[in-house]
Specification:
Layout: E1 3-8, E2 23-31, E3 42-48, E4 52-54, E5 56-63, E6 71-78, E7 84-95, E8 100-105, E9 117-123, E10 136-145
Parallel strand pairs: 1-3
Antiparallel strand pairs: 2-10, 3-9, 4-10, 5-8, 5-10, 6-7, 6-9
Length: 153
């Protein structure tokens, strides 16, 4: 498996852009036509540093894939070695061949993040043999920052 990294967010520290609050969100707009993934590859899209607790995931397919049956799996992977924690645990078989909006609660695996992880997109069972499709997907993950501040007030 090869990993193509277009991830936003660092692998250490707190939620980006949220210095005075313990809540935030990680988001990205993914244009699958520029990823050019071969079958079996994973597209790394959002880094989740140790200390952030994902509350769920929201996705919106804003441009449908040209193959109506195309699907994608969205899951969690370890930053250290790219192994899957739960390759379809966030969303299993997201229909990317149609305009689509979906939201899900975070799975149990996301509630036990003990090291830096990332959200990855892999080919689902439907549609084409690779994810070099023409779908555009927006992803948002609300998070709580559970790291201790440098100074407790």
């Amino acid at each position: 498996m090869a990993v193509v990294n277009i991830a936003v967010g660092g692998t250490t520290g707190s939620a980006p852009g949220h210095t005075h609050t313990r809540y935030g969100e990680l988001r990205i707009k993914v244009d699958m036509s520029v990823s050019n993934l071969a079958a079996g590859n994973v597209l790394r899209v959002i880094n989740i540093p140790l200390g952030l607790l994902p509350l769920g995931i929201g996705v919106k397919v804003t441009t449908a894939d040209s193959v109506a049956a195309a699907t994608a799996d969205i899951g969690l992977y370890k930053v250290a070695d790219d192994t899957a924690v739960d390759e379809d645990g966030l969303i299993n078989e997201l229909a990317i061949g149609v305009l689509n909006t979906a939201s899900y609660a975070a799975p149990a695996a996301a509630n036990q993040i003990t090291e830096a992880m990332y959200v990855g997109i892999a080919q689902g069972a439907g549609g084409e043999g690779a994810l070099n499709d023409d779908a555009v997907i927006e992803i948002v993950i609300p998070v709580i920052d559970l790291t201790f501040p440098t100074e407790v007030e």
